[in-house]
Structure formats: structure tokens, C-alpha cells
Amino acid sequence: MRGPTADGAKVPFCNAKEEISARVETSEGDGGQKRPDMRGQRQNIVWRNVVLMSLLHLGAVYSLVLIPKAKPLTLLWAYFCDVVFLSSSLRVTAGFVSKWPHYGFRAFQKGTRVFCLFIWLLFSLQNDIFEWSRDHRVHHKYSETDADPHNARRGFFFSHIGWLFVRKHRDVIEKGRKLDVTDLLADPVVQFQRKYYKISVVLMCFVVPTLVPWYIWGESLWNSYFLASILRYTISLNITWLVNSAAHMYGNRPYDKHISPRQNPLVTLGAIGEGFHNYHHTFPYDYSASEFGLNFNPTTWFIDTMCWLGLATDRKRASQQVIKARKARTGDGSI
């Protein structure tokens, strides 16, 4: 769902400040000719994504009609897959956001990483770990610019789902090539998942959730497919997308009023922790993604439990002194 992988991803990160906006450049490979400035031009529509997303959401709407006809166990299974044990939001927050893009904690046992992170991530069908993490790092470094894959300055629809309907802006690709992703390339779990992503994600996101109700308690394949796969997946996607859209447009900014990400309580409830988005962008290394720790933050509960069981370690947190100083310096005074 994130678009084609950028070439040259091994190029180390450059610490020098770079021009963020799209600009006219000269390239020796182009014979010294100026490259066209893409700013203001309409990007090419990816019709495949438009069709697939339209069909997916139409299927989700149709799934609502099937709810009264389904067995209660099927509805519980769909809930169990997406909210209780295999919560897509928890996978995205604990796995993608805290572990691989920012290394907010360290899951040191490979078997634990495979089970708790790699397997869970498959259910979300939001691209492989490498591609998601790379784009998430670009999003943080160049937030609300043309280099941001889902730039909220282009409106709610674009940041929510529209960015999937067009080709990536040139700046997203160019800036992504300059990030240091050698840690991802060296991670065997990341590379294994990337290699077998397509077949494994189809099995885990659609086949397994569909077959369990049909095989174990005799639900029809039709109901199983639409309720446990299509409806569940669509809800999961939209909850995750709200972090890109609503949490970048609506809410207060107690930690840094100069950036777009906000504290959005409604998104926090749905995305179980990611709604504390002004905090997350101000202190991206904090594994909790929130100043409030365990309060209204199941992701923190999950990571803390892993650490308590000895399955993860080295949790990183912003100190209270640092948080208070930052709020006093750049916050909007809302808390």
C-alpha cells in the first residue's frame, strides 16, 4: 500500500539540512538539462489502487448486511482478530512505529520478534516492514512537505486515503533514498518478511481469518470472508489512516505548536496510543508515544508486558524534565 520501493536505499543519511520543497535541478545524467519542476502539477492516478480500494469499501458496506445472518462466534472471531489479540493498531504502533522505524524498544529474542511483531504485522496488509518503516522515517523527517508520503497540507482526503491513489511525489522518492536504512537491510526478520511478504500476507490477512469460522463452527465461507476478512480489514485500514489525517489536522499541540501533528483523543481510542500524535512527533524515540504512560495506551501495556516477561528490553522514554522544558518552550499551553 506504500508504493514502489525507492532505489538506492543504502545511501547513508545526510545530516546537512536539505531543501524540502520540490525544485528545479540539473543532472549530469540528463546531459546537464534542467529537470522539470513537478510542483503544482497533477500526479498520475494509480487506477489499480482506486479500483481495489473502491471494491474493498463497497465490500465492507455490503458486509454490514450480513451481520444479522452471521453466527455470533464469527463476529467474536472478527473482533478477536482485530481488537483483542491481533489488533491492527497495536501491530502498527508497537511493531512498525516503535520498533523498526524509531527503535523505541528492543525485542532481543528473534523468536519473540517473529511471533509478536512479524506475524502480527502480516494481518495489517500495509506493506512489508522495510517499506513501511522507510516511508515512516521520511514522514517524520519531512512532515507536511512534498517529501511526506501523506502530506496533510494537501487535505484530509489526500492524507487519509488519496495518497494511495496517485504516484509518489518525486520528493518522497528522492528524500527516501538519502535516509540511512542499513539497520533494516541488516535485520534478518525484516528481510525474510520482505522476501515472502505477498504470499504470507494473503494467507494471514484473508485466508486464515476466513477458514477458521468455516472449518471450526460451520459458518458459511461467504459470511466468513466478508465479515472476518473484508470488514475487519477495512475498519483496520481506516483507523490507521486516521493517524495520518485526523491526528495531523484536529486537536491541540501541547508539546510543539509549530508542527502539524495533534493530540486527538478519538484517534487515541481507535489507534490505541497513536492519537497522542503531537507528542509522538516531538519525541519520536519514546516507546510509549505518550507522556501519560499506561493511561489510555494499550500499546504501552503490551510493550511493558513484553519487558516484564523478559521478551523485550531497553525501553526509551523522554524524561519529565525534557518534556516540561519542551512544553514551556514550544507548546500551545493546552496542558
Automatic annotation (TrEMBL):
<feature type="transmembrane region" description="Helical">
    <location>
        <begin position="77"/>
        <end position="97"/>
    </location>
</feature>
<keyword id="KW-0472">Membrane</keyword>
<dbReference type="GO" id="GO:0005506">
    <property type="term" value="F:iron ion binding"/>
</dbReference>
<dbReference type="GO" id="GO:0004768">
    <property type="term" value="F:stearoyl-CoA 9-desaturase activity"/>
</dbReference>
<keyword id="KW-0444">Lipid biosynthesis</keyword>
<keyword id="KW-0443">Lipid metabolism</keyword>
<keyword id="KW-1133">Transmembrane helix</keyword>
<feature type="transmembrane region" description="Helical">
    <location>
        <begin position="222"/>
        <end position="243"/>
    </location>
</feature>
<dbReference type="GO" id="GO:0005789">
    <property type="term" value="C:endoplasmic reticulum membrane"/>
</dbReference>
<keyword id="KW-0408">Iron</keyword>
<dbReference type="GO" id="GO:0006636">
    <property type="term" value="P:unsaturated fatty acid biosynthetic process"/>
</dbReference>
<feature type="transmembrane region" description="Helical">
    <location>
        <begin position="45"/>
        <end position="65"/>
    </location>
</feature>
<keyword id="KW-0276">Fatty acid metabolism</keyword>
<dbReference type="Pfam" id="PF00487">
    <property type="entry name" value="FA_desaturase"/>
</dbReference>
<keyword id="KW-0560">Oxidoreductase</keyword>
<feature type="domain" description="Fatty acid desaturase">
    <location>
        <begin position="102"/>
        <end position="285"/>
    </location>
</feature>
<dbReference type="InterPro" id="IPR005804">
    <property type="entry name" value="FA_desaturase_dom"/>
</dbReference>
<protein>
    <submittedName>
        <fullName>Stearoyl-CoA desaturase 5</fullName>
    </submittedName>
</protein>
<keyword id="KW-0479">Metal-binding</keyword>
<comment type="similarity">
    <text>Belongs to the fatty acid desaturase type 1 family.</text>
</comment>
<dbReference type="InterPro" id="IPR001522">
    <property type="entry name" value="FADS-1_CS"/>
</dbReference>
<dbReference type="InterPro" id="IPR015876">
    <property type="entry name" value="Acyl-CoA_DS"/>
</dbReference>
<keyword id="KW-0812">Transmembrane</keyword>
<keyword id="KW-0275">Fatty acid biosynthesis</keyword>
<feature type="transmembrane region" description="Helical">
    <location>
        <begin position="196"/>
        <end position="216"/>
    </location>
</feature>
